[in-house]
């Protein structure tokens, strides 16, 4: 709310002026307060004077188209039918109906095979369940069945818009891009990579199992060879001991026969 219009000198009133609440004390004369809105939705002003209060409802109307914009899928898959939406708004962002927007496609075409088309924003929003679905101030259009690649959408419009002092410059063109991915192909590739990985792991396991088996065989052979060598050494030692005892006892017997009074004991 403001207490003066921009045409009242020397005040300069813009959409940034005013407050949402205003209190004044009358000196017996009328007090003029102006309420304004930048929205096309319904708003209200409550006026309180002592015990009296009343509510005044106000609603703005959208101005001429000042901005154009695009809404495209973040991504889509091969074989689907993507849609794009062109939008027009006034200087305050309110949707604007019946605004022609020229849309050109790169990397695909519209469902009717054209690559350039004028989309006129809708003047109504359809009820729930009603087809085709329309949204006030926008126009949605289907594209051709998607194939792999990048799609670029270029929109131009609001040709008569002129810059407003103190506000952002009009947006008369918009460019958006999105990618069409071959999800089935990607899944097949991932499955193939997984199968290859599993096959590689299986091959690694076979090699590891063989290496373990070879190591065990070598270990068992080494143990067996060591045992065999130990047995051979023990047998040789036993034979040497037996030979020594036999030779000693033979000599001892001869000694004892010749020297019966100085006999020596035999070894066992």
Instruction: List how many beta strands DSSP finds.
Output: 10
How many helices? The count is 1
Domain module tally: 3
Strand content: 15-25%
CATH H level, superfamily name of the largest domain: Immunoglobulins
Q: Biggest sheet, open or closed, and with what strands and sense?
A: 5 strands, mixed
Structural class: alpha+beta
Round the Cα radius of gyration to an integer and report it.
50 Å
Do you know the CATH architecture of the largest domain? Sandwich
Write out the strand line-up for the largest beta sheet, numbering strands in chain order.
Answer: 4-10-9-6-7
Give structural attributes.
elongated, five-stranded mixed sheet, three-stranded antiparallel sheet, 268 residues, alpha+beta, 3 domains, 10 strands
Describe this structure in words.
By secondary structure, the chain is of the alpha+beta class. The chain has 3 domains: 60 residues, no CATH class; 115 residues, Immunoglobulin-like, CATH 2.60.40.10; 85 residues. 28% of the residues lie in helices and 24% in strands. It is built from 1 helix and 10 strands. It has a 5-stranded mixed beta sheet with strand order 4-10-9-6-7, with no helix packed on it. The protein has a 3-stranded antiparallel beta sheet with strand order 3-5-8, with no helix packed on it. β1 and β2 form a beta hairpin. The chain is elongated. The mean pLDDT is 89.
């Amino acid at each position: 709310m403001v207490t003066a219009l921009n045409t009242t000198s020397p005040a300069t009133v813009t959409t940034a002026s005013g407050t949402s609440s205003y209190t004044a004390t009358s000196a017996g004369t009328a007090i003029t307060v102006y309420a304004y809105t930048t929205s096309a939705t319904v708003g209200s002003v409550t006026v309180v004077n002592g015990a009296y209060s009343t509510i005044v409802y106000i609603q703005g109307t959208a101005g001429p188209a000042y901005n154009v914009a695009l809404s495209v899928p973040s991504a889509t898959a091969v074989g689907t039918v993507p849609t794009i939406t062109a939008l027009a708004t006034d200087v305050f962002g309110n949707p604007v109906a019946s605004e022609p927007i020229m849309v050109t496609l790169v990397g695909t075409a519209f469902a009717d095979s054209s690559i350039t088309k004028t989309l006129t924003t809708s003047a109504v929003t359809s009820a729930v369940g009603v087809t085709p679905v329309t949204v006030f101030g926008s126009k949605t259009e289907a594209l051709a069945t998607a194939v792999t690649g990048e799609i670029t959408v270029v929109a131009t419009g609001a040709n008569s818009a002129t810059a407003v002092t103190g506000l952002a410059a009009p947006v008369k063109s918009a460019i958006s891009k999105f990618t069409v991915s071959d999800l089935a192909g990607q899944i097949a590739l991932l499955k193939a990579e997984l199968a290859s990985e599993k096959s590689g792991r299986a091959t690694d396991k076979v090699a590891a199992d063989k290496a373990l088996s070879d190591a065990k065989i070598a270990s068992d052979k080494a143990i067996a060879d060591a045992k065999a060598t130990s047995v051979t050494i023990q047998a040789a030692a036993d034979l040497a001991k037996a030979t020594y005892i036999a030779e000693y006892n033979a000599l001892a017997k001869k000694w004892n026969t010749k020297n019966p009074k100085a006999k020596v004991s035999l070894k066992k």
